[in-house]
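Class I SAM-dependent methyltransferase
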Amino acid sequence: MAVLGRRSVSGAFFRPRSDSCPWCGSREIRHRITVVDTRQGKPGAFGMDECTGCGHLFQNPQLTEPGLAYYCRDVYDGLGREHYAAMARRSRAAHRKRVRAAQATSPKRWLDVGARQGHFCHEARMMLPGTEFWALDPSPEILAAAERGWVDSASRTPLVEFAEAHRAEFDVVSVIHYLERTTSPQRELDSVREVLRTGGVALIELVNPQSRFARLYGKYWYCWMAPQNLHLMPWRNLCLLLEERGFAVSRVELGAANKPFDTMAALLTALNYHLPPAKSWPWLSRPVRLPARLFRKVALTFAMPALGFALALDLLLQAVISRGQGGNTYRIVAVAR
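Tokens:
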């Protein structure tokens, strides 16, 4: 997998390289880190640059829409569907925290953008049975969520297009780990404001690029989510943008939004990157033979005590991190003016 991860991808997958920050326009940018697809082992190496002025991190050069679709494919649907579903089912507590952050508005209609398989909406509607839940996601999995009754209405329409036909129709719009994967977070926030009624609430959750674990674990930091994450915004930058876009920021959760898995996830990511792949995935250049698969299973078995210790360390650190500002995630609640 290591060799595959360092191979280059066709130039048709990338936009021209940028020589300025897409957030503030500054030309004072520097290379921060090169990351690879450590989850699926799809080929390619992806540079993340950092603006020395505003601190914005961005993929440079950035993937095109076809490139982004290629790397997102089989993560939430297709071959990766069941794996993602299993992980999402273990996130019920996090989903409930998100709902509580915005439910004081007693929403009648809630739009979840980037809903993936609809697990958040499924949990949220159990807490808010009188609320109508709409969901947007490019994956066909969101249509299946509507068929299961997890959402009231589902669409694969991009938010920017959806907003043109649904102005001021929603009381809450949640964008949970969605803005990172968009080519223009600014334009997406304009659309969020457009679909919200005045007084409505935007619930936003993002990776925190200022987390100390980002530097500590380097390319194995789980939250890079390479190459899906195109933009990583410091929370102060986003608060300023929200104010400019017609919002009043009412709540910012930093350490309280942390997900206690950095150490364990970094170790597991490193193992997944260096060990032979679990299967002969279609994007691999050669099949994975039985001896390689057995070696992977044995190695992971021997690594279980270390993974258990890493998780215990994460849970212990959570008591400190949750009271500070250095978590791996931040959450913002903003009211549309």
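The chain has three domains: 2-79, 91-210+231-259+326-336, 262-320.
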